[in-house]
Amino acid sequence: MAFESWSEVWQMGGHGVFVWSAYSVTLLAIAALVIVPWRRSRAEVKAQRAWRARQQGAASSHAP
Amino acid sequence: MWTFIHKLGSPPWFYRISGVILRWLLPMTVLALAVGIVWGLLYAPVDYKQGNSYRIIFIHVPAAVVALAGYYVMAFAGALSLIWKIKLADTAMRAAAPVGAVLTAIALFTGAVWGKPTWGTWWVWDARITSMLILLFLYLGVVALWDAYDNKAAAAKACAVLSLVGTVNIPIIYKSVDWWYTLHQGASIKFSGESAIHSSMLYPLLLNIVAFYALYACVVLLNMRAQVEVDNRHARWLVEQIGDD
Amino acid sequence: MTSLDRFLLGQFQRQLKLAFSRPGEILNPIWFFMMVVALFPLGMGPRPEQLAPLAPGILWVVALLSQLTVSHRLFASDYEDGSLEQLVLSDHPLALSALAQVLAHWVVSGVTLALLSPLFAVVLALPSEAITTLVASLLIGTLGLSLIGAIGAALTVGIRRGALLLSLLIIPLYVPVLIFGTSAVVEASRGDDGSAWLALMGAWAIASLILAPPAISAGLKISLDA
Predict the structure, then answer these.
(1) C–A contact (≥3 CB pairs within 8 Å)?
(2) ipTM, 2 decimals?
(3) Is the Cβ–Cβ distance between C121 and C37 less than 8 Å?
(4) Measured between beta carbons, which residues in chain A are less than 8 angstroms from residue B215?
């Protein structure tokens, strides 16, 4: 490791604010990029599965 | 080639293959990003001139590289959509535009945060920063044009034309901004040219560039799949693929 | 003269006649140019030594904006009265008839602006040796601006409130011509030779002349289908 202790890691030789804010904003943005379509897709898949279950339920209740 | 393009254009084929790809690519991307970021943040040596603020390079450069490449990806998808009228290419273009815009914004933000400790100012009208800002405008133009059309098939064609026009212009814009900067350089801060980067810094940087490319692919695929699910709602093949669980 | 030549010439003349029958469409951008130029001394103070170094940039930025304000009208009236549809359906290639229309638009808006620009240059204390370069750069540059603006106009003609959207699409593409134009005028006002920049700008204008018409015609077809 390029640092002696964790507090040095945190301070980054006085540049900690800059380094950590750049990394945290980037990671948040990346997380949002992945999570937004993933959640959208999951909601759609869930809705379609529920629709299909209803269709099958309706079909079987009409069966003699 | 021809059958490959037609296969690519088939939503069931795309949906199945992209699902397989994502199952492998997404965990590998997360792993590569985690390794690359920890490596860059903790294990790469300190830069003797800039101190630790240089560590921002490990996210700044990958974001900028992929943001620029992403514009070409978007324009290529636009060309596919115009020439072969592949609907999936429309979806790809639609998915690529906001991702590219976010990556460009990341590059600009990290550049500004890096600039403060290095040059003493948040913003410098340096040639590369200015070019990135214009790239952001180009991306936002495509997103805005897409939203303005009610007819989404027409929106795709219009955005394809716009992104192709942008592609032709990007090299000219970059070159002209470069000349502009050299002409005015006397008036602003002068940077030394890039010096050779030591391999202990280069390897984590390369790893992160690869990881950002993989991330880009994952996010575009995720967005495309979400759109394909909506466009093919209740289609028999989709119902079969998503199963009951 | 083939029938295509006659058709294109007729198209060009029709647009010119149309523009001159509504002088407001020619004069308004000039008014706009004049008024915005007048805002700068009011905003920054009247001292010539303060205005002169900024004059090339101000003149070019304002010229660019005044071109933007007119480009969204380029195909609008033809779209509204249906003559655009006829143009698309006619046997003549749409790229060429659109080009004739853009050239007429350039003569009406760009050329008049370039010819009147010395007035505004004097007002902003631009050194007199730079004035010919300013006129030349505006003359060449506005041709490119009209062509690129026409691509945006074609893509947005069917969109309500498309004028602002057009600016968002087109401004980034105007960057090279702004840089070439201001650089030429700056060099000329220093007493240097700005012709290298003018040559670059000419190359840019010729490239637009070749590449823009297909994009304009594609845009018009998309707008009519939407």
Answers:
(1) no
(2) 0.87
(3) no
(4) 30, 33-34
